[in-house]
Write a structure and sequence with these properties.
Blueprint lengths: L9 E9 L5 E6 L2 E6 L6 E9 L3 E11 L25 H20 L3 E4 L14 E7 L21 E5 L7 E3 L10 H14 L14 E8 L5 E7 L4 H13 L5 E6 L13 E5 L3 E5 L9 E5 L9 H15 L6 E5 L5 H6 L5 E6 L2 H13 L5 E5 L2 H4 L2 H7 L4 E4 L8 H10 L3 E6 L2 H11 L3 E9 L9 E8 L5
Parallel strand pairs: 3-5, 6-21, 11-12, 16-17, 16-19, 17-18, 19-20
Antiparallel strand pairs: 1-2, 1-4, 2-3, 4-5, 7-8, 7-10, 8-9, 10-11, 12-13, 14-15, 20-22, 21-22
Helix pairs in contact: 1-10
Bound molecules: S-adenosyl-L-homocysteine.
S-adenosyl-L-homocysteine binds next to helix 5, strand 17 and helix 7.
Length: 480
């Protein structure tokens, strides 16, 4: 006989004490941490545990006794299911306050190093419709939120959906009615494509059986009105052109209409050829360089190139990094994890030379092309994994940097990269991070030779728990 499982506990009258660093609010019961999605600090609730781990529980709210004063009513009808904007139920001021706390907590609990100045977080002027890129997924078995099996035998007839993955689920797609993240005509395009496909019998993908024609749609916009749409089909068929032609005619504002044939099992298109159907094979984004308002920097963005997804806030993030660096004009700067070289081109006119390093080959090509387009001649790019590329020989060859700007992905820097930075002994390090926890871990290592002077959080992703932070580190006197 199998052992009977003990039911998971229900905790009553629990006060939510923090907004948490990965989008789940936090409570404490008998010294055990309980993560509660979609709760708000200040709520008093009953929670049912659904996951039990050695050091924490995950639980969902089953009854609310008191509502937090930070609560507002979420704009979006998909809130609660969609993984996109988990903090919509918090007022924007509260979101900023909790993001700032996340950065401070990481510095105090993980980095454990003193700092001189913690600047108040820079919030976004636009708290909705700020993203320049969204990817939606087609599914012939959308997640049925409204399906009541007792009423309707077999469920609704049409189960085609186009939207986002439910958090952490590769095969569950939430059909999206209106998304508040990207400006129009993003919603209109998505809805029109879905309608056309259903009316014309074009099949939606089935991720378990690898069947169906339509897989994804990617929509990219730029601040000057460029609009790129990429449709991902599973195979070449005579229906593809019909859909593309219809889309081009229905939305003349599309400046770049592209498509991909993806017969692979995974969704990535980075290793596939993106073909042009109509318009330009890129969009152009602009950024205002420091001290200039007349001549914006221009960046060509191809279908698979990385560009910061909130361009308005990216501008503020780069300005913060630039101010922290405090250039005099004769510096050699390393821009590590340079992507398409946006930070490099932002600072290039104010320094002697910039060396950028990046491991996506396409991005390096974009970076070089962007420098040509902007007539910037004092930047060189190198391609490769920083953990391998950045060594003593590299520094000997290119010169000891005066300032290192580093902007790693969420995982932070590889320890080897941190070691090499310590070896290089640049006078300053400007560390731009999208993950305060890994940044704090790296700052603790850098503390061997560097003092943390300032921190400047920036909110790039309103309605989510994500936060960026710029830190300024200075080589200690005795080292110099
Ligand atoms: N600074 C850029 C890009 C930041 S995103 C900007 O502001 O737009 C981080 C970048 O690091 C990505 O372009 C990613 O391709 C690159 N990257 C990630 N791991 C890397 C590694 N090990 N070596 C070099 N580059 C890496």
């Amino acid at each position: 006989m199998g052992r009977r499982k003990r039911p998971l506990p229900l905790f009553e009258n629990v006060e939510i004490i923090d907004a948490g660093s990965d989008g789940k609010a936090v409570a404490r019961v008998d010294d055990r941490v309980v993560f509660v999605p979609f709760a708000a600090p200040g709520d008093v609730v009953d929670v049912q545990v659904y996951k039990k781990r050695r050091s924490y529980f995950e639980a969902k709210v089953v009854k609310t006794h008191k509502k937090s004063e930070y609560r507002v009513s979420p704009e979006c009808s998909h809130f609660g299911l969609c993984g996109g904007c988990k903090w919509q139920h918090l007022s924007y001021e509260a979101q900023l306050q909790f993001k700032q706390k996340q950065v401070k907590d990481a510095l105090e609990r993980i980095a454990k190093v003193p700092y001189d100045e913690f600047l108040p977080i820079i919030g976004g002027e636009h708290q909705y419709y700020y993203r320049n890129k969204l990817e939606f997924t087609f599914s012939n078995r959308r997640w049925l939120t409204d399906y009541d099996p007792s009423k309707e035998e077999g469920g609704p007839e049409d189960t085609n959906g186009l939207g986002f993955h439910l958090p952490g689920m590769f095969d569950k797609i939430l059909d999206i009615d209106h998304c508040y993240l990207q400006r129009d005509p993003s919603n209109a395009i998505r809805l029109v494509v879905k309608k056309y496909a259903i009316e014309n019998g074009i099949s939606f993908y089935n991720v378990r059986k690898w069947e169906g024609l339509l897989r994804n749609i990617i929509i990219r916009t730029s601040r000057n009105g460029n609009l790129m749409v990429i449709i991902v089909f599973r195979e070449e068929t005579e229906k593809n052109e019909g859909l593309l032609a219809f889309l081009a005619e229905r939305f003349p504002e599309i400046t770049s209409l592209m498509y991909v044939i993806n017969g692979k099992k995974n969704d990535t298109i980075n290793d596939l050829e993106v073909k042009l159907f109509q318009g330009d094979p890129f969009i152009v984004e602009e950024m205002i360089p420091p001290g200039e308002s007349e001549n914006p920097l221009k960046f060509k963005i191809g279908p698979t190139s990385f560009y910061q997804t909130n361009p308005e806030q990216a501008q503020k993030l780069y300005e913060a990094a630039y101010d922290f660096a405090g250039f005099k004009g004769d510096e050699l700067v390393y821009d590590l994890y340079t992507g398409a070289g946006t930070i490099a081109s932002f600072v290039a006119p104010s320094v002697k030379k910039v060396i950028g390093v990046e491991y996506v080959e396409e991005a390096v090509k974009d970076a070089q092309e962007n420098m040509r387009m902007n007539d910037i001649a004092n930047v060189e790019f190198y391609w490769g994994d920083l953990a391998k590329v950045l060594d003593e020989e590299f520094v000997r060859q290119h010169g000891r940097p005066d300032v290192i700007i580093t902007d790693p992905p969420r995982a932070g820097m590889h320890e080897k990269v941190v070691r090499q930075i310590l070896q290089a002994e640049s006078e300053k390090i400007v560390y731009v991070s999208c993950n305060p926890a890994t940044q704090a871990r790296d700052i603790a290592l850098l503390h061997e030779k560097y003092d943390l002077l300032k921190a400047q959080p920036v909110d790039m992703f309103p309605q989510t728990h994500h936060v960026e932070n710029v830190a300024l580190l200075k080589l200690r006197k005795e080292q110099a």
